[in-house]
Design brief:
homodimer, two-stranded antiparallel sheet, Arc Repressor Mutant, subunit A
């Protein structure tokens, strides 16, 4: 085994790990110190083989017929997902959504610390949102470098998403959490994770419409 | 063809339609009245056959070698996704995230109108957030019925997500937009669309960590 060879973890595994962490934390709160894959799998409606495989990605192997030590497993997931080394981030775009994210305290549990926001709007620059400064965009390159910030949370309007993403990349941002509906075209070395509210809402609205159409349609004779 | 037979649209198609709409709207703003699948596909980095198939789901067929009339295509997508019939929704959980969504003006373009929020916290009940009332949870069933609200946006903490989701379903909510990290177990007739920030963030953080690990690892001799 060579520690320098990094095998990327499959995305579905990464997406499930926070849910395992939540189940484990709840068990620990209730005084449980040992848990099996089967238990976690049942709690989340997953397959236990899948759970075992996902947990193995964090580098922890359970004991056959015993299971996992709950605190060790929590620790393993937190280390693996980087929740222990808090990662600093900037929000780019201090509109409603950007402002909301500045005030959302739930990110800290996942190791994300939003330092401040950047915007081009003179009416916003110099204000604070939930105690965090809104700074002018032209300060971004300097602050990314000085504060070693790797993550930029993109919350501008779709029309300026591409232009702003380019500015972020030039400023030295390595990973973009993209809350716009724009599919960004950036260099392959830049990590982009999409969080598209409009796409999610489209699924919800249409399914609801289809459900309502079905329920009012007359019975079709056999 | 029988209009009463509803074939559910594949989710990936639904997720792409808002992006097509954005491209089309931009073309229309520039005075373009006709567009081809190829043009849309290139703009979004997709396959043109895929685009044609997705657009056909909304009930519109382009003319060979001519393409689509841009205004008709915009209209078709908007009608299909229900953006023209504004859908009312309640936010359940008036914390930071719930409050943020109450203030986010971007939903209106997608036909979602958030009427008010519900919470159990006496300190929040009776206040307004961005001009919208925070109401007590026990008023939910009555208001869902009287105002015919189908969508509930769940933004409570993970620990109470299941309990609150059950209350929403009993109150008559048909579709839950789930912003918690909890995989909800509800009746199959209830539509659940997950918007899990922690899962998305897990992917982003880990990829960034893997990227940094790779970049600092020594060159392995051949």
């Amino acid at each position: 085994m060579n520690a320098n060879i990094i095998r990327p973890t499959p995305e579905p595994t990464l997406r499930r790990l926070p849910a395992y962490h939540r189940v484990l934390q709840r068990l620990l709160d209730r005084g449980r110190t040992v848990v099996s894959c089967t238990h976690i799998a049942e709690d989340l409606g997953l397959d236990s083989t899948q759970v075992r495989k996902d947990l193995a990605a964090t580098g922890i192997i359970g004991k056959p017929k015993v299971g996992y030590a709950v605190p060790a497993l929590i620790d393993s997931i937190e280390t693996y997902l980087g929740w222990k080394n808090v990662t600093d981030a900037f929000v780019i775009g201090a509109g409603h959504l950007g402002g909301a994210l500045l005030g959302y305290d739930g990110f800290k549990a996942y190791g994300l610390n939003i330092l401040s926001a950047f915007d081009n709007d003179p009416a916003k620059i110099g204000t604070t949102i939930y105690g965090k400064d809104v700074l002018p965009m032209d300060k971004l390159p300097d602050l990314v470098e000085r504060m070693h910030v790797g993550i930029g949370i993109l919350t501008v309007r779709a029309a300026s998403a591409h232009e702003v993403a380019d500015i972020m990349v030039m400023a030295g941002i390595k990973a973009i959490w993209n809350f716009t509906q724009v599919k960004l075209q950036v260099a392959p070395s830049i990590i982009v994770e999409n969080m598209d509210l409009s796409a999610s809402l489209a699924v919800l609205s249409r399914k609801l419409a289809e459900r309502n159409e079905v329920s009012v349609s007359p019975v079709i004779p056999l």
